[in-house]
Write a structure and sequence with these properties.
Chain lengths: 325, 325
């Protein structure tokens, strides 16, 4: 994501003076993050990320996001921590926007995830689920099943520009998901989930997971939905094939930290369909509403249609190579 | 500038292994630079800029640009230095592109330049002119007077979308510049110039100039043209007024390092018109050919029309407050 807000050096100096991190030595806009302006801020004391929250992040969600990062980091989940200024505030104002300084996380996200990466991911995800349990603020999942029909309508007939018949395919799938989702989900353990744990949000350093970033879709929902997102995000090859080894390593590592029950396992095919739908719908909307030559990476929505259709053909977790062990 | 080329961690690891800078600990695309993909690369040994040269930078110009930075840095001009790999090469290949690792320069560019900044700039500019004298590779200025009519034609009738009558105003000015330029320029001292020294290419740290960056328009041309570019880039206020104090401080500091002769001073009004024209024409083209909602900053071409028209009214350097001293 490109930088939206231009921060003057005077404004930055004043802002940083309220923190105990020394003087600014450099500040560069970085091309990462979802909906925000992100800067790599170097000071006399070290490296930090400065984030300015742009319009698409609701201001009243920020205490949840920042609070959650602090909560998790304190309890040993590797993730960035918001810094408090000298008044004890993590959420402050810069250039008329909500802004925070967040600790810098070393590492890079894996462009070609391996089974080893998937195992590391599974362990970290389970830890996040366990440790998030006593986080007090709640935030419902704004992009769950109840939002999908509206999201599809926002793209409307133009969905068929991406693939003829796509609108009908998705509408029919939403019918089925709306029918099955509430009952399935009601029986599953829930808590804080990351809800966007694609490879670009997971950093590794020398093969070891160094941290999870970008908690701006985090919310309360069933844990198995987070696992289903990771199945879609990590376990398909670029040729569209499903990599059973990756899925098994991920789930097996997850299970060593938090028991992944039979009822959760059985729900995976449906949850994976729903997760594919959720990302397909937002990518579809972005695809139709971002100029092709804008300098942002627009992810292909049809990649997720393939995955959705794969999950439609899955009748039991054994098709994923995931049998209760 | 957003990042164009996506580098995988495996490709990066292999690339960096050929340098003596230790292992990569992080690598983030940054939103700076003109036509290239730039990354802030952290390794065990420090911070660096990794640049991948995209199409608009001609490959056969790269030895000039990289050689010049090395040449200047060795002789005490504060600027980034290209690192050589273990084979002694500064220019290498990554992801099918020419690529270089360049030293990291601390500091930030001044969003609101002051007369003190202008004095620091003048001194650094003069030093660049002096020290560049014995740099052996030559590169003609591809964006000088001979290119302006073609550049205007590239925008064509659409120039008037920006301002009615703009095409005629510019065509007439180009007539005058083409008539006066060769004779004026032939009498002036020349050498290596930066040719794009706008505030975003000059870093300061605690009020001191910490370095000049972005040498990708550097070329051989008359020194006074570089000064004229800086007049346009640094000495106008946002309300369009010319700040004589800034111009005086810049020229006075310049003159302490390299004598700025009467013939150069007298040429400034014409050179400043030409410099305004050059940036006006490229901004006009970008304005007309970049989608408005692309996530890049498109600079207003009309800002430079105002400056051009100011210089048209200047008959002698004393109008700038610059009298030979």
């Amino acid at each position: 994501m490109a930088v939206y807000t231009e921060v003057t050096d005077e404004e930055l100096t004043t802002f940083v003076a309220d923190y105990s991190i020394g003087k600014v030595t450099s500040c560069k806009g970085i091309a990462e993050g979802t909906e925000n302006s992100n800067y790599l801020l170097n000071t006399e004391k070290g490296s930090y990320i400065l984030t300015l929250y742009e319009k698409r992040v609701a201001a009243n969600d920020l205490p949840f996001f920042l609070g959650l990062m602090g909560h998790l980091a304190k309890r040993g989940v590797a993730c960035p921590t918001p810094l408090e200024n000298t008044n004890g505030q993590a959420l402050n104002q810069l250039c008329g926007r909500n802004a925070a300084i967040i600790s810098f996380l070393e590492g890079m996200w894996p462009r070609r995830p391996t089974p080893d990466h998937c195992a590391e991911l599974g362990q970290a995800l389970a830890k996040l689920h366990v440790v998030g349990a006593d986080f007090e603020i709640k935030r419902p999942n704004a992009l769950s099943v109840a939002s999908w029909r509206k999201l599809l309508e926002a793209s409307g007939a133009r969905a068929d520009e991406v693939k003829p018949g796509l609108r009908d395919i998705l509408a029919q799938e939403i019918d089925e998901l709306e029918a099955s989702w509430p009952e399935t989900v009601s029986s599953l353990p829930s808590g804080v989930i990351h809800a966007d744990l694609f490879p670009d949000n997971v950093f590794f350093n020398g093969g070891q997971l160094s941290g999870l970033i970008d908690f701006y879709f985090a919310c309360n929902d069933v844990f198995a939905y987070d696992v289903a997102i990771c199945l879609n995000a990590w376990c398909f090859e670029t040729d569209g094939s499903f990599n059973t080894t990756k899925a098994r390593r991920m789930l097996s590592a997850y299970g060593k930290v938090r028991n992944f029950s039979k009822v959760e396992l059985d729900a995976l095919p449906l949850l994976a369909r729903g997760s594919a739908m959720r990302f397909l719908l937002t990518r579809l909307y972005d695809w139709l509403n971002t100029p092709k030559d804008a300098m942002v990476t627009i992810k292909d929505p049809l990649e997720l249609l393939e995955r959705l259709q794969f999950h439609q053909g899955v009748t039991s977790p054994s098709s994923y190579g995931l049998d209760q062990s």
